[in-house]
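> forwarded from #structure-qc
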């Protein structure tokens, strides 16, 4: 299986998505929509796979014997099989690494959201923020305005912006006085 994590944007290799689904099914049986919501929640909104990604993955897992499906009215309830559990056990480190990556990226996105929300709310900066340079305050204000202008842009543009912000955050974090 992949283990490559995220490529450009927020798309996983199909094998990686299948592993994540198996890990979720190992916790409990789920509907496809529940899998999408759980991945959304665990990544704090960073990775929300489309039904067009999840349902074919579920069908494939069923076809190869890693999952079963039971009709529940008009909905389908998916469960992991013993073969699926064996496959997951062999690839557990990859699945765990992907969820760890979700946590890390999700926490970073939460920090950015909080910073932007505090700025927008007009809250008084604390003593540490008051010591920031005029240039830093201006740059933060300009970034907030640029993000506000792009807030309702296409998903592709939002992915491009998220990638820019991730690179900037990594560069800022790496540079220490």
């Amino acid at each position: 299986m992949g283990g490559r994590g995220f490529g450009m944007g927020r798309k996983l290799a199909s094998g990686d998505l299948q592993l994540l689904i198996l890990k979720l099914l190992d916790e409990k049986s789920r509907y496809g929509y529940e899998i999408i919501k759980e991945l959304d929640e665990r990544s704090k909104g960073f990775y929300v796979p489309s039904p067009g990604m999840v349902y074919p993955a579920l069908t494939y897992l069923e076809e190869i014997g890693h999952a079963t499906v039971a009709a529940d009215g008009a909905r389908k309830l998916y469960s992991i099989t013993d073969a699926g559990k064996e496959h997951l056990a062999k690839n557990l480190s990859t699945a765990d690494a992907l969820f760890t990556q979700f946590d890390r990226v999700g926490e970073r996105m939460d920090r950015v959201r909080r910073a932007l929300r505090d700025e927008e709310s007009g809250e008084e900066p604390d003593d540490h923020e008051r010591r920031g340079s005029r240039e830093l305050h201006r740059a933060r204000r300009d970034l907030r305005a640029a993000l506000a202008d792009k807030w309702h842009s296409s998903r592709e543009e939002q992915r491009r912006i998220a990638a820019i912000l991730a690179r900037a955050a990594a560069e800022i974090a790496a540079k220490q006085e």
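QC bot note: Strands lie at 30-31, 67-72, 75-80. Residues 1-9 have pLDDT under 50 and may be disordered.
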